[in-house]
Design a protein that fits this description.
It comes from Gordonia neofelifaecis NRRL B-59395. The structure is a single chain. It contains 27 helices and six strands. Helix 1 packs parallel to helix 5, helix 8 runs antiparallel to helix 10 and helix 24 runs parallel beside helix 27. The relative contact order is 0.13. Strands 4-3-5-6 form a four-stranded mixed beta sheet, sandwiched between helices. A two-stranded antiparallel sheet has the order 1-2. By secondary structure, the protein is mainly alpha-helical. The N terminus is likely disordered. Helices cover 56% and strands 4% of the residues. Helix 21 links the parallel strand 5 and strand 6.
């Protein structure tokens, strides 16, 4: 991911040192100052309203709920039904990556009493997505400090916000039922709070200042609950806050406030689910790297929309603004004759290494609470997050996981100040004129680019997944269902196999249960029936085994167990090794024989089921560690179980079984079952 150059405000580190203030030709409380505010406020308001309205319209036109969004709603249904935060009743499995998103949708579904939770997810996502843009723009507008009060006319024009809303995936995932909208809203809120802290006087110890500081630490602290990898941004913000000059009492308070909710939930997760991370994180485990696939994913986002052009524009504008801000600070220091002295460090030997190190540390700490440090922290976090996803290989959904790092990197240029100086008599004013023309040119170029590419559709988007495994998820489902705005689970009945699945569930339930398996025929499902007498400890239930977990689970009753080959909701599949050359996001695949064996089925299998593999899978499932893992999430939950899970969570989290039953038998040191076919 290309970095955007940090923009430094006129109110930089130097505003925090003890020096006479530079004479301001237009103080904020004077009439000229208020007059100078008219242009920036008016231009910002027009730009923010225009960007927000256009984004809202675009997001609404592309409204939908993704299959993965329906996965979240299955958990919400179970919460509302009193089964707990689970995907299948009786199995404590955390099938959703974003904890905060799950409980946010549950809360609003409970408050509204909505019959269709799909509409709750759609509206909550849409509101948060749309609100994130003006909030981020407001934070960036404050970054420029006194620049808008100087002589001349300054316009605050949207730039990064335009780049973001033009990209079709940004509008696709503004709804979708996934947490993207909440993620960018959280980023925007953290950006505003972090910048406000950077502008604040480090010596301010008022109750209001302390409350604002602790509110910021709380927002940063809940990052792991927003999404696990977004912790990168939250952790860097907390690190900067911790090393600033706040005193040890505030550091203790900061640790408590930032850690209370995420640490409390982590303890609950370990005791309840018996793992350290959500089950999808195990299913898509981060072992190994897929850089080549990651760069293919980056190209899949950049190439169709010529995204490199506005990114280069943003970088150039960042450099121009950074240079202009540096010149402004230098001129102010020259005019005031002030030094940039920081807190004195007294030492008997000022030339010793330890003395120099203490002075360097003191200087660094003095500069931490500044807008320069805030912008640098955010940009570094965006780069690290982007590199993380490149290493992971990206995702199978076009553009989705790069939206958050892109949004973070665009924060410093969400809006840009274009200044027309009142005079050209000074070097700084002449630079302002040249810079203003460059910024205006960048703005016009970005608008032109946006008009040209905003409706671009990927080639064969609705029909072809492609060799790289990446798909325009929304367009794929829209095309395959003939519905421009699929929102409800009922809409997904038009997807191949779904109506036939609903009918097969009713038939199988009436016949005493079994495992429902997909066939190559889109209108037919196979069933591995359950025997009349099941082995002790095996419940009589109907199980659907299918990859498209969301549409399947939301069109199935809550008493029907729904699991998948990849392991999002099925720990047995999640604990298999990652396939080296598997499709990204789908690189685990548990053979069907495992779920047939686990269900208790013994005969009447579909022809494609290998009976020897079923026999071997039954033996492999008796591995003591596997049985312990089953008990951790299927056994009756009690305080004793909670304590046991808490102790074993780390081991369960890293536990892996062999994908093939015969190799799992060897791994666990078990005996092969008798009666296998020869060869």
């Amino acid at each position: 991911m290309t970095a955007l150059i940090p923009i430094v405000s006129d109110e930089s580190d130097d505003d925090h040192v003890a020096e006479p203030p530079a004479e301001d030709p237009a103080p904020a409380d004077s009439r000229p100052g208020r007059r100078h505010l008219i242009a920036p406020i008016a231009s910002f308001s027009i730009g923010a309203i225009a960007v927000t309205v256009l984004f809202a319209i675009g997001a609404w036109q592309r409204r939908w709920i993704a299959d993965d969004g329906l996965i979240v709603l299955r958990t919400v249904r179970n919460l509302l039904a009193g089964n707990g935060p689970v995907f299948n009743a009786g199995e404590r499995v955390e099938a959703n990556t974003s904890t905060a998103w799950t409980y946010l949708i549950w809360f609003w579904s409970w408050v509204t009493g909505a019959e269709h939770t799909e509409y709750v997810a759609l509206w909550v996502a849409l509101v948060l997505s749309v609100a994130a843009l003006p909030l981020a723009m407001y934070g960036t507008a404050r970054l420029y400090g006194r620049r808008v009060l100087g002589p001349g006319i300054t316009l605050l024009l949207p730039l990064g916000s335009i780049i973001y809303i033009v990209i079709p995936p940004a509008r696709d995932f503004a709804t979708s039922g996934l947490e993207n909208g909440m993620v960018i809203f959280w980023i925007a809120a953290l950006w505003c709070q972090f910048l406000a802290w950077g502008r604040r006087d480090p010596g301010d110890r008022s109750a209001r200042s302390r409350a604002a500081f602790l509110a910021l630490t709380f927002t940063a602290g809940i990052a792991p609950l927003i999404r696990p990898e977004i912790t990168i941004l939250g952790a860097l913000v907390l690190l900067v806050l911790f090393v600033s000059r706040i005193g040890w009492r505030m550091r203790v308070a900061m640790v408590v406030v930032a850690g209370a909710v995420p640490v409390g939930y982590q303890i609950f997760r370990m005791g309840y689910y018996a793992v350290l991370v959500p089950n999808p994180a195990i299913a898509k485990d981060a072992s190994g790297s897929k850089w080549q696939q990651g760069f293919a994913y980056l190209d899949n986002l950049f190439s169709p929309y010529t995204l490199l052009l506005p990114v280069i524009v943003a970088v150039v504008i960042g450099v121009v603004l950074a240079v202009g801000s540096y010149l402004t600070r230098r001129d102010r220091r020259t005019e005031s004759g002030a030094s940039t002295a920081t807190h004195d460090v007294i030492d008997a030997d000022p030339h010793s290494f330890s003395s120099r190190a203490r002075r360097a540390w003191s200087t660094m700490v003095d500069r931490v609470q500044s807008q320069n440090a805030v912008v640098a922290t955010v940009v570094v976090a965006g780069l690290i997050l982007g590199l993380y996803w490149l290493r992971q290989g990206g995702d199978f959904m076009h553009g989705r996981v790069l939206l958050a790092p892109l949004f973070i990197l665009l924060l410093p240029v969400m809006v840009i100040p274009v200044t027309v100086p009142a005079t050209l008599s000074t070097r700084r004013s002449r630079y302002q004129l040249v810079a203003g023309l460059l910024l205006l040119g960048g703005f016009i170029t970005t608008v032109w680019w946006g008009v040209a590419v905003n409706q671009t559709v990927l080639p064969n988007a609705g029909m072809d997944i492609g060799r790289d495994g990446i798909v325009d998820e929304r367009r794929f489902y829209v095309t395959n269902m003939g519905n421009e705005n699929p929102v409800t689970a009922e809409d997904y009945l038009e997807y191949p196999r779904m109506r036939a699945m609903v009918e097969k569930i009713h038939e199988t339930e009436a016949e005493g249960g079994g495992v429902i398996l997909p066939s190559a025929n889109f209108d037919e499902w196979y069933v591995a029936p359950l025997p009349k007498h099941l082995a002790p400890g095996i419940p009589r239930e109907t199980t659907v085994y299918f990859l498209n977990l969301g549409m399947t689970s939301m069109n199935a009753p809550l008493n029907v167990r729904v699991v998948d080959q990849m392991g999002l909701a099925y720990p047995l599949a999640a604990h298999t090794p990652r396939l080296t050359d598997g499709r990204i996001g789908h690189d685990k695949h548990l053979p069907t024989e495992w779920v047939v064996a686990e269900s208790g089925s013994v005969s009447g299998f579909p022809a494609f089921i290998d009976r020897d593999d079923v026999k071997m899978a039954k033996v492999a499932l008796t591995c003591p560690m596997t049985q312990a893992r089953f008990a951790s999430y299927k056994g009756t939950w009690s305080f004793a179980r909670f304590r046991h899970n808490l102790r074993e969570a780390a081991e369960f989290n890293s536990y892996r079984i062999a994908r093939e039953p015969k190799y799992e038998i060897q791994r666990c040191g078990l005996q092969m079952p008798p009666g296998l076919s020869e060869g």
